[in-house]
Design goal:
Alpha-Beta Plaits, Arc Repressor Mutant, subunit A, 2 domains, elongated, alpha+beta, four-stranded antiparallel sheet
Length: about 160
């Protein structure tokens, strides 16, 4: 993969804020032709610098006003148990993010729910119903202060 230059980084910063911005507008902002912008974006996608393009939806507007941060400790950390747990988590659409971590917990999850009854039902199914889950703790988000997946694009 060729190294990213300043124009690539400018494009990435702009696309990270709005992936639907037209190539013409991108070109004007970074000083490139439309063709050059399109070629660079195609390369950034094919080399997986741009991992994916998506729309950011409002959980509240779609009926999921409760957000929880859940730490999960497994009974054992064997490859089979980890794979089973990951598959179960990957199959649950209300788990927005999942991190396999070091420390007291094995996983940290970001979970959406309609209300606390809905969250309890989810925990019954995913955690209480799983003999490999030793313990889990939940922190209910009172207010989201910063939410995003932005990656710094400036080279330092």
């Amino acid at each position: 993969m060729q190294p990213l230059d300043a124009k690539d980084r400018q494009l990435l910063a702009l696309l990270q804020q709005d992936a639907a911005i037209p190539a013409e507008a991108l070109g004007e902002q970074v000083g490139l032709s439309v063709t050059s912008v399109q070629r660079r974006i195609k390369r950034l996608v094919s080399t997986r610098v741009i991992a994916r393009q998506a729309s950011v939806l409002s959980p509240e507007k779609l009926g999921y006003p409760v957000r929880c941060i859940v730490s999960v400790e497994l009974e054992v950390e064997s490859p089979e148990v980890l794979d089973q747990f990951r598959a179960r988590i990957d199959g649950e659409p209300r788990i927005q993010q999942s991190y396999y971590v070091t420390g007291a917990s094995d996983f940290v999850l970001i979970v959406l729910a309609r209300d606390m009854d809905d969250y309890e039902a989810l925990t019954q199914r995913l955690f209480f119903g799983n003999r490999h889950v030793r313990h889990f703790t939940t922190s209910v988000v009172m207010k989201a202060c910063k939410v995003g997946l932005d990656v710094p694009t400036a080279q330092t």
